[in-house]
Amino acid sequence: MAEIDVVVIGAGQAGLSSAYFLSRAGLDFVVLDRSPRPGGAWQFRWPSLTLGATHRVHDLPGLPMGVADTTRPSSEVVSEYFAAYERTFDLPMRRPVAVRAVREGEGGRLLVETTAGDWSARALVNATGTWDRPFWPRYPGQETFLGRQLHTADYVTREEFAGRHVVVVGAGASAVQLLMEIAEITTTTWVTRRPPVFREGPFDEGAARAAVARVDARVRAGLPPGSVVGATGYPMTPQVRAAMAAGVLDRLPMFDRIVPEGVVWDDAVGQRRLVTADVILWATGFRPVVTHLAPLRLREPGGGIRVEDTRAVLDPRVHLVGYGPSASTIGANRAGRTAVQHIRRLLGEPVAA
Ligand code: FAD
Question: ipTM score here?
Answer without folding.
Answer: 0.98
